Batch of 2 targets.
Target 1
Amino acid sequence: MTEILHIGDHALQSRLIMGTGRFPNHDVLLKALRASATELVTVAIRRVNLDDPTGETMVSLLRRENFRLLPNTAGCYTVKDAVMTAELAREALETDLIKLEIIADEDTLYPDAEKVLEGARILVEKGFQVMPYCTDDPVICKKLEDLGCAAVMPLGAPIGSGMGILNPYNVALIRERVQGPLIIDAGVGTASDAALAMELGCDGVLLNTAVAHARDPVLMADAMRQAVDAGRKAFLAGRIPKKFYAEASSPGEGMMKRRG
Amino acid sequence: MRLVNRAPWYPMYIVVNGKPRDLPLPMPLRQVLESLTLPALERGLAVAVNGELIRRGEWERHIVKPEDELEIVQATQGG
């Protein structure tokens, strides 16, 4: 079963989007990305190291492996900085895709919903395919979709916390209201979290630390690939309703005579 | 904000990624990048001058003036 996920102009076979930060080294990063079978990977935009500008860049490594790049605006606290970062990213990487991240608070790294809405509006107007990292709030998510975002990406839990999908009820509500691509971004700690997100009807999962900081990142990347796949199939297959009482799987008729 | 203690009538430096650089200014942006030995990275680079993106096609024409602030960025690992 090959189902395509469309995000803006991009058609993806993999529903797992991987971050590339916090890996022990480039070798582990590339092996984990291959094991995850991801096609789209996030990158940050940072100053060139002018003391060593000739080293092979991360981008050339990722491009050589045919990964598509999703630049982010990580570290931005203002709309102005996020828009500037997006414009620099588009120029540097020749892609209209942008993961819009505007943070409000250093401890929680929670998105600043008001600024994310404003930033998304400006970037959509400038022709970007915007994928905003946002709160798991059905109203905010719907507003972002209505602004013309290519996907909406509510958090499952704070970035890097590994606490999983803290509010599955909200995610289900968001799924009901958002027609376009819905990606859970942040909070995934292990494979079952990714599977749950997919079972709730999300179109994909974006994760980073759960793989990068696992004891065996490559093995965890493989687990995430399978979890996203399993969760998606379970969603499409349709789970049975939860019931309070047992219901026998074997027929009640044709039983032998009971003795004793 | 003055980053270098100089006589005010002779400001021949720019600020690149937060650090002052002495250069015979004014000069085109492309020449500034060449002086920083950046051409090898050209494809993955983006440059802002005083908070404005300067597109690759404008690097020849854009003249960098004394006290301009340049940000030269590229993609790196991130989540």
Note: Residues 29-35 of chain B form the longest helix (7 residues).
Target 2
Amino acid sequence: MLLGVSIVVFFMVRAIPGDPAQLLLGQQATQAQVEQVRANMGLDKPGIVQYGIFLADALRGDLGDSIVTGRPVTTELLARFPATLELTLFAMLVAVLVGVPVGVISAVKQYSWLDKFTSVLALTGISMPIFWLAMILIVIFFVNLGWLPFPGRLSTGYAVTSITGLVLVDSLLTLNFPAFWDGLKHLIMPAIALGTIPMAVVMRMTRSSMLEVMGEDYVRTARAKGVVPWRVIFKHALRNAMLPTVTVIGLQVGLLMGGAVITETIFSWPGVGQIAYESVNRRDYAMIQGVVLYGATLFVLVNLLVDILYAVLDPRVRY
Amino acid sequence: MLPYSAAQLFHPIGVGREHTLARRSIQISRRDFLRLSGAGLAGATLLGVAGCGGGGTIGGGQQGGGGAGSGNTFVFGRGADSVTLDPINTTDGESLRVTRQIFDGLLKFAPESTDVIPALATEVPQPEDGGRAYTFKLREGVKFHDGAEFNADAVKFNFDRWRDSKNPYHTGGGGQSENFAYYTGQFNGFDGDSTITGVDVVDEYTVRINLKQTQAPFLKNVAMSPFGIASPKAIKEDVEGFWQNPIGTGPYKFVSWNRGSTVELEANENWWGSDVPEREGGSGPKVKKVTIRSIPDNTSRVAALTGGELSAADGLTPDDVPSVKQSGLKVEFRPPLTIGYLAMNVQKGPFNDVNVRRAINHAIDMNAIVKAFFGQTGQVATTYMPPTVPFFNQSIEHYPYDPDQARQMLQDAGAENLETDLWYMPIPRPYMPDGKGIAQAMQQDLKEVGVNAKLVTYEWGTYLERTGSGDHSMALLGWTGDNGDPDNFLNNLLGSASATPTDALNIAYYKNPEVDELLQQGQSTVDEGEREQAYMQAQELLVQDAPWVPIAYAKPPLGFQKSVSGYQASPTGGEAFNTVSLSGGA
């Protein structure tokens, strides 16, 4: 499957109009200079040969060097990964902490005004363009109210010694509490912007799956036994209803981990998504391939792990 | 590392607790699994990430700053990160913006202009031997940031490194080195091709640069920021690493570079320029710390400025100007060193007829277009180069807007009901904020006089390629000046040598022997009077022949906090921050 992805990406990237050599050299370059740079980049060889070279290197963990910066693609990706990881974790935290409880409530109180309200909320969340939400958040909480800092991961004046690359972890490890607090505040807006869609998805999934489970015989049995209602909901129903929700969470984590292009660009978040944006703009073939392959690999991995998790969560799967 | 997150996210809901379904046959209970995966993989995550992130710092800027505008850190926001910090090995504006702070050249451009003034030299030298040699007297007692002495040997070392392709230090610049592109660009090539034949050390503080032939813009070329003098000691120690650890003599010293985010600089307290008057490019550095921050998204950058996180921001669009002003911030404009134009392909009928070209000039209401699309960020172009360039011909005026006359002229030329095409670039350029909008407005104006222009566009690279091969009838394009010399505009854009069949810069394919001769004359003499006459006359001829409809001289806007003063916006786009000061607490 990853092989398929690599083929598609490799040739699709090259189908984007625009010559990286021309873009690199700019408007004032001569034809000879462009040809020279193309030869240096190996772009003068036939596509299939280029792909062969790429694949052979990729299998050895070498995704080539970025056309723009000249540094190895893997190094660039690894350097940006912690920022994306931190943002993803926070966005998912927002999504789950809000999505699951609200989903449960709206299922339990089906057709109540609360349920209707959250349905509208979920629909809005799913249909809201991220860039718009992000800008609104920035305008309200940064520009007008000045409550939350922007942009990037830390304000001017703060620095954290990089141990893991995660600002919050590093600042705690180095006992740098002001930076921890600053970093946390920097995370709020991007996490909300990025977490809104997953939140809505989780909310809807939890709701529908809860509704299904609440109609099951064992729930009725539990009720008939006289188990207290909250225990029925949380112990008997929710646990069983969580399977589809876990799948959805897994999918979303896989997607976000690949880099949230829009959110990271707007918030100047130095993560994988920002690299993706820059490399497409500059036709950095090697980098685009690297980012997509990396995203696809993570996605496959996360799904695999979710499948494994299934077996643990739901013993039936094992047979 | 991934189940860590899944498990963590899971936990609050209470799935992992005291589960009883685990069968005896299963070695590991679900609780154990979750706990294991939680702890173990969290650990793995940290280790894995530590492998890549270790060592450096993650920073939003320098310590001790606080927000922009407070304290003594000047935070400058821009659209992209630098590529390399070895000035001679890049052509990237965002790289040169930083190196401009760290390096000085022998000469530089006076604040807010393209006049040449001395920097590491004590005066601008006079041409000797008919412009085939220049003797530079150097400042004494100047030290590089690494403590090495600046002297004639250092100057010779740098020029030799640039020129001689066999020099052991003719390398560096990092992965994306441009291989001394500006040297080849301004001085014709390396080794035997180089206009500069050699640098003689006359005494410890005097060098003589010898040229193969006269080059009129020579001093302007030397003043360009790629030709900043680097510390020979640092280059000899690690030429391949110099691009990320640059050492010059400039007003600011390099501190650190967080890729994709910030470059940190601190004041060079021993800068030679501190005692030089401000109008002569000296004084300061007043602000002790500088953070140059890249924020790729335009709206975000403006928001960061409005919210006070930046002291200054580049890359405002014309639309941003009123709203930034409304937010109580200052807007300043760079003096224009660009020109945007509509080129008519004179190889194609009916544009081979000068009267048709003049008619098109009359037909377009340029005042309205510039007002609508540039607002305060541009002025209507009158001639074929911007007014900051020397020998700009003040007496020329833009063709008056007169659709009736245009219609009449077209009719006389037998070109009524003309079907043609008008190409526009797909992306905003410094000289043209909205190619499509401008093309549409022109299309309307042309329709009024009976010219039906079909709008055509291509992806940017393809656009340059195809206009460079003359596929268009009319096309929008523009130019940003490199060194502020008329030769850089007129010869590149309208000389017949640039009207090549495949990669033409002269996309009007305009060839006039008379103009060529004048341009040649302007290029090959160092006599200012002679140059002036040549360029004045060339501009008149060009406007008469009308291969273009000149559009505008763009004045790129910069936004500032009220607390910032002394910013000297340069037409070349790269200015040193030494004169910038911050009034506290704003």
Note: DSSP finds 17 helices and 22 strands in chain B.
